[in-house]
Each structure stands twice: as C-alpha cells, then as structure tokens.
C-alpha cells in the first residue's frame, strides 16, 4: 500500500501504512498519477509490490472521510430543516447551532490536516509529523468543545417541557418582534403537526399567558389554530373547538416534535463528533509512536 | 275551658297561614343531580366557565307545562343554605347580585329545549359563563363566573305563579386557577456526563502523550549527539544530489 520507498526507510512500513490508511480516503477529486490501485495516490513506482499487507481493512473509517462527513452533516444541521431556530434565538442562547458551526470548521479542518498527515507519514519527516500532531490536537480541542456545548444546551432546552412552555406562554401573541417571530413559528408547527400547545391545550388554561391577556377565555380558551380545520382552512365546528371536543380540537402537544428536531441536531453534532474523536485518538497515538521511531 | 276554647280558636288562622305558606313553598323535588360534562371535553373546567350536561327528559311531569321557564341557579357553595326560590320573575337575582347574595339565576330555557329522547351523536351541553356580550345587570345573562368558586348548581322551574319544581344541588365544582408557570431548566441527562467525562479523558491522554513526546524529543536532541551511522543518515535525509560520496557526518547534521 505505501510506496516502495518506504521499505528502505527506518519508519516501520506497517505503521506508515496504517497511518496513511488511517488518514486517507478514496480521494476522487485528486488526480491519480498512475491508475495502479485506488487510494494509492502517492505511489511513484506503480510496479513496486506492496511492502505491507493490507491493514487497511482494520481501519476502515479514516479521519478524512470522517472529517468530510462531519462537515456535510453539520451543514445539514445549520440549514435547520425543521426551522426551530427561533426557539433558541429568542432565548438568547443558540448553543446547539453554535456547536454546529464549530463542527463545520472542525470537520473541514480534519480533512485538511489529515491530508497533510498523509503526506507527513509518507515523507517520514519528524517536523511534519510534529506539525500534524499539534494541528490535530488544536482541531481536536475545538471539536470537543463543539460536542459538549451542543449537548449541554440541548439538555437545557428540551430535557423537560417547562422552558419551551414558558417561552410559548410569554411570547405567543405578544406584540413585540420576538413575539411575532415566535407566533409565526408556533402557528406553523401547530398547523403542520396538528398539535396544540406544548403538552396540550390545557397549557393555555392552566397558566397565565400573553395570549390570555389578549383573548378572554370565554371567547376561546386556546389559540384558534388549535381547532381542526377543513381543507379550506375553515374550523370544523367553532363551538366544539371552544368546548374542547377531540373531534374539533387538536389535543396532542407539540413538544414531541420540537424535542425530536432538537435531538436530531444534537445527536448529529455531539454523538457523531464524539465517535469521530474516539476514532481519531488511536490514529494520533499511532502517529506519535511513529514519530518516536523516526 | 274558656281558656281552652280560646287556645283552641287561636291556632285556626295560624293553621290557615301555615297551609298557605306550605302551598307557596311546595316545590316539587326532581331527583336529578346536575353533572359536569364528560372529562373528554378539554374545556369542561376553565377559569371562568364550566360545562354541564343538559338535563334531558327530567321535566316531563304533569304539573310542569311547556311554557314554564327552567332556570339554572348558580350559587357559591356556602350560600346554598341561604337560597330561597324567588317568587316572582322580578325577584330573580342577576349576576351582579352574586357578590352580596351568593347566588343568581341564568340560562333561561323551557322544557322543549331539553327533550328526553337521546340524540345519539350530537353533543349537548350547557356552558355556564359563555356570554360576554350581555351586561351582568341583565336578568338571565350568562356572564362569566367571577371567581374560582367552589360553585354548586341546580335547576329551578318557574311559572307565572312562582317556582314549581327544583332539582338537587350538584356537587362542588372548583374552577381552574391560572398560575404563572415557573420554568425549571432540565436536569443534566446521562449523555452529558458521558460525553464530558470521556472527552476530558481523551483530551488528557492526548495532552500527556504529546507532552511526553516533546520531552522525549528534547531528550533525544539535547542529550544524545547525532551519531552518524549509515542507517541513521539514510533515515534523516534523502539526498538525490551529487554529494553521495561525502562522509556521513555531514549528511547527518
């Protein structure tokens, strides 16, 4: 797998091979000088027999692949398909998305530094390996920070419904900018997911809210979008909705959907990043060992 | 005996008075207890309203005519003993009298509105406190209830001559009281602890390994002189130059 020149060098070819495979992926973007074997981009003599057996199968999740996957996945998180960002933006802390942004840069950095690491492993130079190690450690620290930030904020927001409920009661139908933004978000969620309130329509009855201040309870105990509607967006039965009959009112709470959205983002940042960091550790330890043999 | 005769004669007008009084308070009791509507309705109890089942078929007695009005008496729980059925329509208390009298009458209806046959799939309820448009000083206004209660209700049938029949008092109904929600941030889940602990350990391992490596490098370069053996020199540099015949000492530096 490694070039034949590695055979003549001091560094153990097995370790070099492992390092290279550990860092490299099938790089389709890079031109292949000789189409000898996939991934064998630095080969200068294609006819040379592989000095090492293929330990590549032992390290099938290379750091570069992981870095690119992390990059792509956190771009998806930042795109916010579920559009729940206002929930966190209004509270002033959007650490789940901050973690996603850090992970975007970390993912790309892993890719770049790992490419450099491939070169360092093949060049067998101590200074390059040391640079590689220091750079990887810096990216490692940032990635750790991203994982921890994201998960801690997710715990704060959705481990129990009370924070989301408090926000909804304070801002829904309020006449401020934040209120309008949050009202739009809740209206959309209630229509799309056919739910009402955080735990159910009784949230509006049991607690004081900005909505209650605007609309007397006798008129409608809960927001009008909690009523079931026809295809033409006309309530099926206004009296039934006011009384709270399940045929005319959504009785499911929206918290399940919101927590599912935020959990999806967090799992993608925290646990995925955690897995990548677990994998990167042995690669770096191997690089350190390799450094000592040079 | 004169006294006895006198005593005997005196109670006669009293007896007449008693009979008249009894006829006046001769309310027929209907053994029906007003019920709250089924709890499957989310809006059964709110802050200022509650919903009752309709008293269907309870007023099909001979002494009640179709023209008699059926009122709902809404009373505070501790005012039920003071309740006296109003004799005339003008005496009927309005919702504004609730604070002093402790009860009022509302939801005027008649027997035809509460027919006995089961409708099947229709939901029939009475919502007490449903009307915000009428004034509380209007007789029969179904104004929202002023406080959390507890309330007890019963139905009263009145004709032109006065009250005719009444049902039993319902059980106590307490309304919801809205509180301000106290937001408690969620507790840390097990995942946070796992991630923080393991990542800290990994970082610590890497730091120490790198530190050990740097110390080792320092030792290597500071302590040991670069002994130029043939194997070492070929590892440090690869010269594709024409200095291959130079002594290895030069190549190793």
UniProtKB/TrEMBL annotation, chain B:
GO terms for cellular component: membrane. The chain crosses the membrane at residues 193-216. One of its GO terms (molecular function) is peroxidase activity. Residues 1-26 form the signal peptide. InterPro entries: Haem_peroxidase_sf, Uroplakin-3. One of its GO terms (biological process) is response to oxidative stress. This is Uroplakin 3B like 2. It comes from Lynx canadensis (Canada lynx).
């Amino acid at each position: 797998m490694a070039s034949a020149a590695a055979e003549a060098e001091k560094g153990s070819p097995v370790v070099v091979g492992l390092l290279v495979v550990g860092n490299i992926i099938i790089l389709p973007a890079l031109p292949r000088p000789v189409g000898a074997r996939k991934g064998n981009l630095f080969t200068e003599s294609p006819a040379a027999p592989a000095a090492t057996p293929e330990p590549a199968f032992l390290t099938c999740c290379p750091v570069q692949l992981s870095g690119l996957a992390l990059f792509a996945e956190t771009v998806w998180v930042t795109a916010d398909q579920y559009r729940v960002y206002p929930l966190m933006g209004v509270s002033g802390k959007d650490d789940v998305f901050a973690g996603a942004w850090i992970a975007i840069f970390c993912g790309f950095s892993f890719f770049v530094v790992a490419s450099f690491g491939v070169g360092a492993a093949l060049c067998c130079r101590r200074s390059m390996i040391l640079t590689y190690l220091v750079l990887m450690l810096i990216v490692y620290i940032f990635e750790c920070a991203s994982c921890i930030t994201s998960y801690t904020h997710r715990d704060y927001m959705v481990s129990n419904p009370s924070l989301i409920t408090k926000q909804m009661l304070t801002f829904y139908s309020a006449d401020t900018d934040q209120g309008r933004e949050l009202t739009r978000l809740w209206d959309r969620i209630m229509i799309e997911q056919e739910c009402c309130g955080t735990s159910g329509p009784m949230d509006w009855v049991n607690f004081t809210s900005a909505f209650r201040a605007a609309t007397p309870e006798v008129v409608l105990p809960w927001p009008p979008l909690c009523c079931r509607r026809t295809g033409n967006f006309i309530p099926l039965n206004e009296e039934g909705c006011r009384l709270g009959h399940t045929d005319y009112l959504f009785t499911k709470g929206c918290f399940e959907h919101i927590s599912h959205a935020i959990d999806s983002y967090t799992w993608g940042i925290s646990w995925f990043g955690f897995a990548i960091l677990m994998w990167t550790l042995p690669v770096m330890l191997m690089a350190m060992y390799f450094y000592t043999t040079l | 005996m004169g006294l006895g005769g006198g005593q005997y004669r005196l109670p006669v007008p009293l007896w007449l008075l008693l009979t008249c009084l009894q006829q006046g308070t001769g309310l027929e009791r209907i053994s029906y207890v007003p019920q709250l509507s089924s709890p499957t309705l989310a809006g059964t109890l709110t802050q200022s309203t509650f919903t009752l089942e309709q008293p269907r078929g309870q007023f099909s007695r001979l002494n009640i005519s179709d023209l008699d009005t059926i009122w709902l008496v809404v009373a505070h729980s501790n005012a039920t003993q003071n309740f006296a059925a109003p004799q005339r329509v003008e005496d009927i208390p309005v919702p504004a009298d609730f604070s002093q009298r402790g009860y009022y009458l509302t939801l005027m209806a008649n027997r035809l509105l509460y027919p006995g046959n089961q409708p099947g799939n229709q939901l029939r309820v009475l919502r007490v406190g449903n009307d915000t448009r009428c004034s509380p000083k209007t007789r029969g206004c179904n104004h929202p209830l002023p406080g959390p209660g507890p309330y007890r209700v019963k139905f009263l049938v009145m004709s032109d001559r006065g009250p005719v029949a009444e049902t039993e008092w319902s059980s106590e109904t307490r309304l919801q009281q809205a509180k301000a929600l106290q937001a408690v941030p969620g507790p840390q889940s097990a995942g946070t602890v796992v991630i923080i602990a393991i990542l800290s350990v990994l970082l610590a391992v890497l730091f120490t390994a790198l530190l050990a490596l740097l110390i080792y490098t320092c030792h290597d370069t500071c302590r040991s002189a670069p002994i130029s053996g043939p194997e070492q020199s070929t590892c440090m540099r690869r010269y594709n130059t024409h200095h291959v015949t130079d002594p290895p000492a030069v190549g190793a530096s």
